[in-house]
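Figure 3 (text version): structure tokens given as input.
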């Protein structure tokens, strides 16, 4: 079934009639989308569920991939109406499921139990979390810096063999501790529809809507969970230039939503880049995901990604948030968002 933006209002107040909805915002996502949808069709989920794709103007094969699978609901909006938080809130209004699972268009569920595992901690009779983040496993081809960062981020949240509950306790935590507790990624996440619609929605921000949501959940005293068994295979396929812009954009966005981002000077950026590049050398040499040829290539190129990362953090952490022109020039989101009606 296909609907458009003009029909959204009619669907907005519809009551939940299913157990879960998987929501996937798309824009030119044909590289992995067929694989994502096909594994979603095979989920071992005890309840009823649907898959809702919200497309914001794809011109590649994305729409054909969705329409070839008539069991997928397709809702189309103009590109100008897309917003990372706004569109996910729209998905909640359109959803028929009382539980919502969010995926990015290139996040491939790891197995047939993904939906059950990512939504399980939402059970009021169990963990009773209001928001769940799942594990991300980098693609074997991911560049080393990002691969090891992803592994490190999720290892720091909790062990891989059980659900970890995250909550703040009675006292409001200090800023650094709050940022740690608030980590959230809607590349692979779940929440309750009623909670998102009536209690804490996503903020309508340019980027890092997931960090903002996680922070709002923790500050309000609600419980968040990490469910490593609900894992996806995902890492961004970025060129060096795209990665530089993405880090810049993420740093600016985290500052805008109130996350603690200490300024990094040029010397500090250079030292951190050098240390990071050297630290990765033994990891690359031991990494079984890379062939001998790939290892040699990454030993030469990975330091460039570290340099791009830290010089972007330097720029984004010291730039005035009122300098909209420079921020737009450094933004990958602004560059990728075409003028599509």
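Below: residues designed for each position.
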């Amino acid at each position: 079934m296909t609907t458009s933006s003009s029909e959204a209002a009619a669907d907005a107040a519809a009551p939940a009639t299913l157990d879960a909805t998987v929501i996937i915002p798309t824009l030119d996502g044909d590289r992995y989308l067929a694989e994502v949808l096909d594994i979603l069709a095979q989920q071992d989920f005890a309840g009823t569920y649907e898959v809702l794709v919200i497309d914001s103007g794809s011109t590649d094969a994305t729409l054909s991939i969705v329409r070839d699978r008539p069991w997928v609901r397709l809702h189309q909006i103009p590109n100008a109406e897309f917003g990372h938080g706004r569109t996910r809130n729209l998905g909640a209004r359109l959803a028929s499921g009382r539980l919502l699972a969010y995926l990015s268009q290139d996040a491939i569920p790891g197995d047939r139990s993904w939906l059950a595992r990512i939504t399980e901690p939402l059970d009021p009779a169990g963990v009773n979390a209001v928001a769940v983040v799942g594990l991300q496993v980098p693609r074997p081809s991911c560049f080393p810096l990002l691969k090891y960062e992803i592994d490190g981020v999720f290892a720091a949240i909790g062990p891989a063999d059980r659900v970890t509950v995250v909550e703040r306790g009675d006292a409001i935590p200090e800023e650094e501790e709050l940022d740690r507790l608030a980590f959230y990624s809607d590349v692979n996440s779940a929440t309750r529809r009623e909670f998102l619609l009536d209690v804490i929605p996503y903020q309508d921000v340019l980027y890092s809507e997931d960090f903002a949501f996680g922070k709002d959940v923790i500050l309000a005293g609600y419980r968040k969970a990490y469910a490593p068994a609900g894992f996806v295979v995902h890492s961004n396929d970025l060129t060096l230039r795209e990665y530089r812009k993405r880090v810049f954009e993420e740093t600016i966005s985290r500052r805008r939503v109130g996350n603690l981002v200490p300024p990094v000077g040029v010397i500090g950026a250079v030292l951190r880049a050098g240390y990071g590049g050297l630290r990765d050398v033994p990891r690359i040499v031991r990494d079984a995901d890379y062939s001998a040829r790939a290892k040699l290539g990454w030993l030469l190129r990975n330091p460039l990604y570290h340099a791009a990362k830290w010089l972007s953090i330097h720029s984004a952490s010291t730039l005035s948030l009122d300098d909209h022109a420079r921020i737009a020039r450094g933004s990958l989101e602004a560059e990728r968002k075409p003028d599509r009606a």
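The mean pLDDT is 93.
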